[in-house]
Amino acid sequence: MRGLTPFRKLALSTAISSCLVSGIVSAQIIAEQNFNNLDSTQTQTTDSLTDGNALTNLSAMNLGGPGIGFNTFWYDSRSIGTGPVTVSSDSSDFIGVSSFAGSNSPDVSPSGVAVSTGTEHNFEFNDTDGRIELVFDPVDTAFATGERTLSLDYWINDTGYEADDSLVVSLTDGVNEEVILSLVDTELEASSSADDGTPNWQTLTVNLDQVLAQAELLDLVTLKVSVDTNSSSENIFIDNIKFESTDGPVNAAGTLVINEIDYDQPGTDNAEFIEIKNISNEAIALGAYSLELYNGSNGGLYNTIVLDDAILSAGDYYVVCADASTVDHCDQDVTPDTNLIQNGAPDAIRLVNTTLAETVDQVSYEGSVVDVVEGTGTESFDSNSIPDVGLSRTPDGTDSNDNNADFAFRCSTPGALNSDQSSNCVAPSEVLISAIQGSGIESPLVGETVTVEAIVVGDFQSGGLGSQGDLRGFYLQEESSDWDTDAKTSEGIYVFDGTSPGVDVAVGDKVVVTGTVAEYFGETQINVTSGSVVKQSSGNTVTPTSLLLPATETITNSDGDLIANLEAYEGMLISFPQSLSVTELYQLDRFGELRLAQGGRFFQFTQNSLPSVSGFQTHLEDIARRNVILDDGLSNQNPDPIRYPAPGLTTDNALRMGDTVTGLTGVVRYSRGSGGSGDEGYRIMPTAEPVFVAENARSEAPEVGGTLKVASFNVLNFFNTLDTSAGACYPSFSRGDCRGADNQAEFDRQLEKTVTALSTIGADVYGLLEIENDYTDGPSSAIATLTSALNATETNCSEFGYVDPGARIGSDAIAVGMIYCKDTVELASGSTPSILDDSDLEALGMESRAPLFNGYATNRATLATTFTEKASGESLTIAINHFKSKGDSGLADSETCQNAPGSDLNCDQNDGQGFWNQRRTYAAEALSAWLQTFPTGHSDPDFLVMGDLNGYAMEGPVTALIDRGYTNLVTEFHSAGNAYSYVFDGQAGNLDHGLANASLLTQVNDAQDWHINSDEADGLDYNTDFGRNTSLFDGTVPFRSSDHDPLIIGLNLQSIARGDYDQDGDIDRNDMLLLRQHLNANVEPGHPMDWNDDGRITGLDIRLLILQCSNQHCASSN
Q: What residues form DSSP beta bridges with 362?
């Protein structure tokens, strides 16, 4: 079930090693890790990492081993880009399990001699070049008694620490996090250990009971150690992590224990049993063991029971009973059916390994039997007047080698977790899953121990046991006969059994599970890591429940997003009879997930509708009801292979948005993406492989006709200055403004794929967006590099050139640009490329609207260039643009946007246009006014506006240009309803536009978006971060060369009679009206509306135009 309380997003990412620890593992120790049994060879990492990566070099990090498992993550706190990377010049970097024995060793003998290598291990943080987080597996402390404590040792090298160095230790339950140790520069220095040949380890000990209570942490906690250093002399070690309890449940034998005895019942003793529990971490064959029963009155052995040759899984129970018809979960029915076990005062039972002739465990009850007792025998005794009670280890599995301390009079629970109740006992009865789920937001039974009997419908166990994935558990569903009548209660539930499950379940198994009800990241679950799982039968079938979208209602997740309310299906096996369309692939490579939509893919609200608060809210409700996440059923991030489409994503076996799947079947889960990251919501964990149908196949480049082809293309932050520690990009000339490739391999891949896409389009002029703003670097600039690469590729053009404005374009790190084919076009004679920025606003009468193009959170400056087509001699001016994005850029936190957004139209008005709509709209108005001044110095009246206006078809920036005489070419030539060039949040729409003014419109042959990018999974692009399989990339095809689709326009430039401003073939009243719009405007010499060439449009120019009219009185021909 979905919890109400929002949680912090924590960096608890994919596990490298995992050994879930729960319950009790050694004397008075809940869980521990001293690293001594883990390999310490070759623990330097050679991974080239980006922020948030796990260290995955198998020779570097330790897989498995005893004690608490742990994961190691690196965060780029120092903005170095990649790291920590061990190379020949930096071979001292060391992160991992260590047995360092050199100078200033942390481990020395009492005499001051460093211990030999391999004798004592610990975890070393050396020159991390960023923040390393050592994240241990969750530890369940709930079943420990007495005062709980956490301790660890730390050793700090005596060296010079700076202000940005730190050591932080914290505890988290996945919701809240509490820092229990924080040392920075001066504190690190003060805590450092002198190199004096003596042991200088310091111990941190905290009272867990106090920390958990004060920080409101749950009993299932995760320990995290964070170290941030940047020098090889800055060396920090940790060791001997221990979760302990003063009265602690202990386990001396460490294998099998006699866990529960019921030897007396009211009336006839016909329900007697002995329960054995496997408290080790490994399965045990019971054929080598036997039970010996002793009569204390004479010390004699009166019965020996040889155990069947069964395999008892770790954490599981084995019940030997007198009569299986009267004892639940009996595994071995022996004779006699009554009076199997003596009634005490005193008596005893011994568990023996007959192969080794060793006593494994022994219990004396109602006193001590000589030589068959641990410590003293129990003072507690069974009752012959109270049913369903006996002697139980309390807590379950406890063994301190003292029978009287370990056993208590408790309710009998054969084959299940021992009870903490001693009265009002009933025979262990199962709780229905519907009662656990409840009809509300959260389970009404959170924190309670429950027993459930149900059918396994989803097998997602860890350790290679899960046949359908790995989610560290499995899903149960009630048999149909056990369903309740409340449609709001789910009949399914997730069972968490950790990374080392004791029982291997399979789909169709009927099992009885006992565990604790919990809400984990919004999902109701039964945690059985300290409970039990008992198989009853196999081969059972459950029919999937039909689930139809749209959902009847929506809810809001903790991120504030609307999602379909599928709470009534949480944990259940379902099937969608409908055809669902792929509507988002953004997280396919990162988390192995995608979004599906009922009723076809989603389009942005303002692509087809005018902005509206009520309309936009209705739109959000509609898409929330109609979409669901399809997960890959794995808990790890960055899967390889990427599951969808089967048998795995490749360039040739690609999934595209708009493809469909019908009959999707799986279990419903509520969670974030793999590792607790990504979107929060209901997701389908498939139990049968989804079969996708390619409804949106890739296409060849569209044929747009005409004699001149123009295209706009977003080149996805094409920087030839790498985003590394050596990067220095405009405007800050630091790495922070480098936005492109992180290394040379990424750049080479990006360059190849970009050139492939451009050459396949085959345009005469390319308007580029998101190219590095380094024009002043001349032949070394990014645009020059791209142009050279095009010229080195076989294309239909013998030589490309680029428009050089002679300066940087605007004040942003990225800029627009133009590349053109010198065979077919040239810069128009007498023209000069021109830049629109804030310096032009005063002349346009718009200075009060600044800033629009310069400074933070503004539009990128516009570049306008007039080209002449060589074949026809005709010219046009192209203006390439990239307006401000819809992101808030800090505006959302302003007091105005928080309290009175209507007073600042740059705030999000919740009408579908996002933030900064006014600034984008003002930029469009300035652009139109600027073009009317013929800024390139050329008088040709044909204007083509292209680029990413960051507004969909019905938003302010686009409609402002339409209101000023421009026509949206994509919607003019094709249906507006299905036009798109970009997908965001699962919704498609046109951000990349081509708009022609009236004089150019009649010369446009066609305009089409080519969907080579927005429909593709970004896992196919040039990036190599997060350990992506580099073989997915294919630079010889154009697909996913960017995140925006290119727009391609075909033109037939024609000579137009002077005065035919609307280019309808005559000069009439309509042309006179167009001229009147520019009355009193100052213009450049030769302007087609300045008939008397005096540099100003006046009434005389109108009279001179009338003389050119095609019809009497300038009557319209149409």
A: 350
Rounded CA-CA distance 977/903 in Å is: 32
- The H-or-E segment that residue 944 falls in is strand 943-948
**For the segment 430-466, what is each residue's pLDDT rounded down to a tens digit?**
799 999 999 988 999 998 889 999 999 999 999 889 9
Domain segments of the chain as ranges: 21-245, 256-411, 433-537, 552-693, 708-1051, 1069-1114
Residue corresponding to tokens 């419908």: 457
Query: Which own/partner pairs from 751-754 qualify as long-range (CB within 8 Å, at least 24 positions apart)?
Result: 751/718, 751/785, 751/786, 751/789, 752/1035, 752/1036, 753/1021, 753/1022, 753/1033, 753/1035, 753/1037, 753/1038, 753/1040, 753/1041, 754/715, 754/716, 754/718, 754/786, 754/1041, 754/1042
pLDDT at 19 over 50: no
In the predicted structure, residue 846 carries a pLDDT above the cut 80: yes
Task: Tell me the pLDDT band of 110, cut-offs 50, 70 and 90.
Answer: very low
CATH architecture entry for 256-411 = Sandwich (2.60)
Phi-psi region of 524 (alpha: psi -120 to 50; beta: other; left: phi over 0): beta
Residue where the block lists tokens 């309290």: 899
CB atoms within 10 A of CB 510: 18
Contact between 722 and 743 (Cβ < 8 Å) = yes
Question: Is residue 21's pLDDT more than 70?
Answer: no
Give the other-Cβ count within 10 Å of 546's Cβ.
Answer: 10
The span from the CA of 159 to the CA of 125, in Å, is 14
Band of residue 280 on the pLDDT scale cut at 50, 70, 90: confident
Domain 21-245 matching CATH 2.60.120.260: the answer reads yes
- The mean per-residue pLDDT over the stretch 746-757 comes to 98
Helices 1069-1076 and 1099-1106: crossing angle in degrees, nearest 10, is 170
| 561-616 pLDDT tens trace | 999 999 999 999 999 999 999 999 999 999 999 999 999 999 999 999 999 999 99
Give the Å distances, CA to CA, from 121 to 40, 105, 239, 388, 953.
7, 11, 8, 49, 63
CATH topology of domain 433-537: OB fold (Dihydrolipoamide Acetyltransferase, E2P) (2.40.50)
pLDDT for 1115 equals 84
Token pair in block for residue 469: 């994935």
Side-chain-side CA neighbours of residue 368 (13 Å): 10
Whole-number mean pLDDT of the chain? 87
Strand, coil or helix: 237 = strand
Using alpha carbons, select from 833, 713, 810 the residue that is nearest to residue 765: 713
Helix axes 744-761, 782-791, angle to 10 degrees: 60
Fold identical between 256-411 and 433-537?
A: no
pLDDT in tens, 168-200: 999 998 888 899 998 887 777 776 665 444 557
Angle between the N-to-C axes of helices 956-963 and 917-931, in degrees from 0 to 180, rounded to the nearest 10: 30
CA distance 332 to 329: 9
Provide the pLDDT for residue 426.
67
Q: Report the C-alpha dihedral over residues 142, 145, 147, 150, rounded to 10 degrees.
A: -50
Question: The tokens 């569209």 sit on which residue?
Answer: 702
Among 563, 604, 597, 603, smallest CA distance to 581 is for 597
CATH number of the 708-1051 domain: 3.60.10.10
23 class by beta-carbon count within 10 Å (0-12 exposed, 13-18 middle, 19+ buried) = buried
Which amino acid does the sequence have at 648? G
Confidence class of residue 251 from pLDDT cuts 50, 70 and 90?
A: very low
